[in-house]
Structures
1.
Amino acid sequence: MSLDSITRKALDGVLPSDAEIMFLIEQAPERLPELLGHAHRVRTAHLGRKVGLCAIVNAKSGTCSEDCAFCAQSGHHAADSPEYPLLSPDEIAEAAARAKAAGATRFGIVASGKLVGGRDLDGFEAAIRRVAALGMIPDLSPGILERGQLTRLKQAGLRGYHHNLETSATHFPRMCSTHRYEEDVDAVRAGLDAGLYVCSGGIFGIGETWDDRVELALLLRELGVPSVPMNFLTPIPGTPLEGRAPLSPEEALAIVALYRFLLPDRQLRICGGRPTVFGTNRQRELLTAGASGLMVGDYLTTRGGDAASDLKDIRRAGLVPARE
Ligand code: SF4
């Protein structure tokens, strides 16, 4: 068994065996640069040299009914995060125009909460039309949508449905007690069945094991999710995970590389927690570690980086910003 032999399998889209997955994880501390180099090779073979850029707006913030332990927007925690109802279509369109000027092509409208009421659905529909009219790709992260709601929003121009599974089915009950993991999996399936581009991934550094990371990746692979957002915990005061140390850059890079071997042809988009884990100096390492997309601008409740410096890093790495 060797990195070369596992890489050859990944180049053909073949899933590594359990022993090979273990071998990849064991390479992480000692042979990290080689692991990352092989992951980058798999990434360029399947996805070329393009880096997908997306941006989001926190369109409805706080007072969420759910109690996800890592999230500042839960109404169950004492985090000092903004609270406001759904922004108007005009406000969302203004944020989309700013994101477009910064180089993003996909624009995600993100709203806190588990289920979507009728008034918010009307607001989403109007905002989706406005974002599409700007020539951007409208995505929506609204919680769980019913099939009829998905169809209606797709007819309005919705292209992407975003719903993270967050972590493995095994670890999830330790992170959230207000809904079942299966509800999230069903939401992802409904988005795929509706013919939408589904973004579903997770957050790392929340006490999950390597087994949990593998379990999540294999489920995403089985579901056929085309795009996998990867977030890293920023511990937020007032949340149950406030005292947890952020992941080291090395561990986060190893997770990205592992995901490239497990999901060789999927978009791996690095989202929240990038500045927390990598600071300003090490973010560019992600671009040659198997990642194929970046979220630019601010995240939901934390500040992001400078999109211009992301574009510079992309070009320096010999990569090109992608239209999707
Ligand atoms: S992660 Fe989503 S569902 Fe969970 S508390 Fe935060 S906004 Fe609510």
Note: The chain has one domain: 3-322.
2.
Amino acid sequence: MVTEAPFVAVDGVGRSFGEGPTRVVALAEVSVELRGGEFSVIVGASGSGKSTLLNLVGGMDRPSTGSIRVGETEIAALTDRELTRYRRERVGFVFQFYNLIQNLTARENVALAASLVMPGREADDVAGDLLERVGLGHRLDRFPRQLSGGEMQRVAIARALAKRPALLLCDEPSGALDSTTGTQVLAQLQETARTTDTAVVVVTHDRELGAAADRLIRLHDGRVVENRRNDRPATIGGKAGAG
Ligand SMILES: Nc1ncnc2c1ncn2[C@@H]1O[C@H](COP(=O)(O)OP(=O)(O)OP(=O)(O)O)[C@@H](O)[C@H]1O
Ligand SMILES: [Mg+2]
């Protein structure tokens, strides 16, 4: 599914930290577009600005210069309160280290997130469905410590999807996993982009993921040095050129 208008339009965005001689320019003049239903992959060396860009799009930080439009909303112009609401209602995050609540089961972790946007009883059902969808229907009542790394990350994906986010932002989601398990997690994310209107964005060090991306964005020293659409993306964990 690819919508016509860009869903997220990052335009001339800069982000610097500090002042004077210690000033660090993390991003400079970055312009990219992300679309619903697309699987976008951001690559680049350590320190190139990948997480900074993801945090800006996710409303966890504000740009020093430039504009970030999400749908009709200029998020750089939102008040703190409005930005909190944006993060809570429209953005799902998946991080390297899962960040699950240890004393809640898989289902409870997901239901808690779902309950932000729907009544509690409905949230329990939605949590079960989502965990089923990420292949964890048989792990609903397990606590995080009773799950493998890949299973925990799939719970984190289900949790991020629970609020039906417009944007799913993933910062090295397979970074802590062995390659087989990491591939399963990335396949799940690609599948999400293919089957929903969510714009899925993955930051990765995995060079091979570029071939599977609908859009590949490469950063170098805070600038976009490559940005291309791939009309025949490989299916992760499957055959090439499908979709
Ligand atoms: N809050 C901050 N204060 C000061 N400098 C920062 C801050 N956040 C990021 N930086 C700097 O901005 C640059 C880009 O950092 P960023 O975390 O975006 O890189 P990255 O591409 O995600 O790297 P990695 O692959 O190691 O995660 C780095 O030089 C970093 O030190
Ligand atoms: Mg990073």
Note: The chain has one domain: 37-60+80-229.
